[in-house]
Amino acid sequence: MMETGSVSRSAEPGALRACSAPSSRARDAEALRRVRNRNVEALRARNDELAGQLRAAAMESDDAHMTRLLSELLRFHGVTRGQRVSLQLKALLNLVHSLRCVALTDDLTGLYNRRGFMQIGARLLDVATRDVRSAHLIYFDVNRLERTNRTMGRTAGDVMIRQLGNFMRDLYPSYGVYEVLGRLGGDEFAALTTCPEYASRGAIVMRAGTRAPHSGDLPALSLSVGVAHFNPRRPLGVDELLERAEQAMYEHKRVTRIASSEQDPPTGMTRF
Prior knowledge:
By secondary structure, this protein is of the alpha+beta class. It has helices at 2-59, 63-74, 81-104, 114-130, 145-152, 154-171, 201-209, 238-263; strands at 135-142, 179-185, 188-193, 223-230.
């Protein structure tokens, strides 16, 4: 009996060690997991910084800086392989998305450029055709912009261009969802909408006339406007619709010039 008890007591330390081993391994695994989680959070923050820096370097065509940033992206340590690949993919996808946005956006106004307007506008017309819903393409031209650039400088002209961009955002508050806004180049803009409220020339010109000038020095916003309507039962491509709206805009500009010349008396004469 004594020997049996002795054997049992002598076996206890080994049994304790055997029981404590899994517990120790679990603590080590938990500590490693926490370290990796901290590493992942730190790398995510750095990942966001890298995405912004990569975008800036790409826009500036700084190949050397881009190479250094991409090298850092590929050398992430302290995380599992799966986590590293996930972070790298996210950074590269963010870069691609940023570059795509830059390629489709007008720098001065923040609206789509011509390429972006045509791409996104084509999608909106596809949806309108599918849903059998009418749409309207409005073509804008800023009057007297060249004169403003010539007499007041390009900075003043840029203010007028931004002013029209903001005016269009006010007119079409659902842009980015149900409406597409774009600066096609120079002083020409376009809007594509499924809402009929501001799909008429008269309503737009009247609204522009009530808008206060940006400053006392700049002329009030004056527009030539053309509208083309999209029939979902007889659909047109966005390029053809844009061409029709542009022709309507130039007709409005021509009629307005004729009316203005008839109102102004010839040089040397006084209107009574």
